[in-house]
Design brief:
The chain has helices spanning 55-63, 81-84, 87-93, 103-113, 181-196, 200-210, 230-241, 259-273, 288-295, 314-326, 344-355, 372-385, and strands at residues 4-7, 10-12, 15-17, 22-23, 26-27, 32-34, 37-39, 44-47, 71-75, 98-102, 119-122, 127-129, 134-139, 149-153, 158-162, 217-220, 246-253, 277-282, 298-304, 307-308, 311-312, 332-339, 359-360, 364-367. By secondary structure, it is α/β, with parallel strands linked by helices. It folds into two domains: 4-241, Ribonuclease Z/Hydroxyacylglutathione hydrolase-like (Metallo-beta-lactamase, Chain A, 4-Layer Sandwich), CATH 3.60.15; 249-385, Rossmann fold (3-Layer(aba) Sandwich), CATH 3.40.50.360. The strands form six sheets. It has a seven-stranded mixed beta sheet with strand order 1-2-7-8-9-10-11. Strands 17, 18, 19, 22, 23 and 24 form a six-stranded parallel beta sheet that branches. A five-stranded mixed beta sheet has the order 12-13-14-15-16, with no helix packed on it.
């Protein structure tokens, strides 16, 4: 468990979670990392810790550079447990270390751990001098917790970016020029869609706050460290946070006897005729977090469900709950589905989509099996509405 040198005096000492497959309902097929960074100076600084259960891995890497008891400062950019879970153990190993966090971070840490340890609360522009290095703190509340902040080290032009620009990605490689850039961007896009998306206005403010900094390395809290493709990930964040959509339609559905599925295929055909890219995603086969990744840049979201016991199918309800929480803005939407007698599901889906503030298209409901004439009417009506 060797540390990885970033510069002559800065090391990655985090942990790799090869087996993580679910993070708060977000499917993490490629695992993740919990990144912590050790900065050697007259005073020694640890930036963040790792999730509880990976403390030994982090400590082994720290010990490959210095005795952990010599750590003077622990900067907590974010108090969530995948970043701060090892803090109690670190304070046992380095009892003289001072924790530094935002004001909300101080509050969160004390309330979560039920302790009365010393935490120095910092505000925007505050600095920490450790010898030849000076750290500058930039609180960025709600990217993605109230306590979130980033730390900038001007001498090395490193931004310790917290959850911003991260990816859930377990690798033995640490840098973006050592791994497939397409996979990194794919995972960064999924990370944004499933974690950061609700806070896009705050992301835009953060990008503005950081725009004047000279950044040669972005040391994230999860996944790969950026040093070659910095402009690429920053431009992607500008696009994602601005709610910029493409000529793309997402058709999401579940089905019981293939009737709603046939309707989904017909809706996709209408979008295709109008020159739209589209995705047909069955909730039986696709995880909601992968669907959200596709929704990040889609102009249209069409959701279909048959009626079961006077309700939409549970899979559809779960997806809509998840999507509404992530709050993608400014979409156009449509509800559809088949039914045997009541037909309540289509109205329920419509109401939820409408509550998201979407521009609603006319819903489509078909009793029992859709015949060619019924499907033709759906296609022609949709083509006129697009």
């Amino acid at each position: 468990m060797k540390p990885v040198k970033i510069t002559d005096n800065i090391y990655w000492v985090g942990a790799v979670d090869w087996n993580l497959r679910n993070f708060h309902g977000y499917l993490t097929q490629r695992g993740s990392t919990y990144n912590a960074y050790l900065v050697i100076d007259d005073k020694i600084t640890l930036i963040d810790t790792v999730k509880e259960g990976f403390t030994g891995e982090m400590l082994e890497r720290i010990a490959g550079v210095i005795d952990p008891s010599k750590i003077d400062y622990i900067i907590s950019n974010h108090s969530e447990m995948d970043h701060s879970g090892s803090l109690p153990e670190m304070l046992m190993r380095a009892p003289g270390a001072e924790i530094i966090a935002s004001a909300n971070g101080e509050k969160n840490l004390k309330e979560h751990f039920k302790w009365d340890c010393k935490v120095r609360a910092v505000k925007a522009g505050d600095t920490l001098n450790t010898g030849k290095y000076t750290f500058t703190f930039v609180p960025e509340p709600m990217v993605h917790w109230p306590d979130s902040m980033v730390t900038y080290l001007e001498a090395e032009k490193i931004l310790f970016s917290n959850d911003a620009f991260g990816q859930h990605l377990a690798t033995s490689e640490r840098f973006d020029d050592e791994y497939s850039p397409d996979i990194i961007m794919e995972e960064a896009r999924k990370y944004y869609a499933n974690i950061v998306l609700p806070y896009s206005p705050q992301v835009q403010k953060a990008l503005n706050d950081l725009s004047g900094l000279k950044i040669e390395t972005i040391a994230t809290s999860h996944g790969i460290i950026w040093r070659r493709n910095i402009s690429r990930i920053i431009e992607a964040y500008k696009q994602w946070s601005s709610n910029e959509v493409q000529k793309k339609a997402l058709i999401v559905y579940d089905t019981m006897w293939h009737s709603t599925e046939k309707m989904a295929e017909t809706i996709a055909a209408a979008f295709s005729e109008q020159g739209y890219n589209y995705r047909i995603l069955s909730l039986q086969q696709n995880h909601i977090s992968d669907i959200m990744t596709e929704l990040l840049e889609a102009e249209y979201i069409c959701v279909g469900s048959p009626t079961l016991n006077n309700n939409m199918l549970p899979t559809v309800a779960a997806f809509l709950t998840y999507m509404r929480g992530l709050a993608p803005k400014g979409r156009k939407a449509m509800a559809f589905g088949s039914y045997g007698w009541g037909g309540q599901s289509v109205k329920q889906v419509h109401e939820i989509l409408e509550s998201c503030g979407y521009q609603m298209l006319e819903s489509a409901g078909i009793k029992f099996r859709p015949d060619d004439e019924a499907l033709k009417k759906i296609r022609e009506s949709l083509i006129k509405a697009i």
